[in-house]
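Hi all, long-time lurker, first post. I run a small reading group and we've been trying to get comfortable going from sequence to structure in the token notation. Rather than ask abstract questions, I figured I'd post a concrete chain and ask someone more experienced to write out its structure so we can walk through it together at our next meeting. Sequence below, copied exactly:
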Amino acid sequence: MAKTKQEVKTPVVREYTVGDTKYIVKATVKDGATEDAATKIRRLIRNDIGSKNTQKRDV
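-- Answer (accepted) --
Happy to help. Here is the structure in token form:
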């Protein structure tokens, strides 16, 4: 089923800066989502920070 222009939701774009890293977040709403936007952004940033810490130890 194709969506009409009225059914397509405009994404929200925000910028977050943590330390020297700028995160540009484009958010859309998904039916059936299990976490809210703030929780997801926190999780993504923590995962990114964790992966950067792991990369520093590998050097």
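A couple of things your group might point at:
The beta strands are 12-18, 21-27.
Residues 12-58 form one domain.
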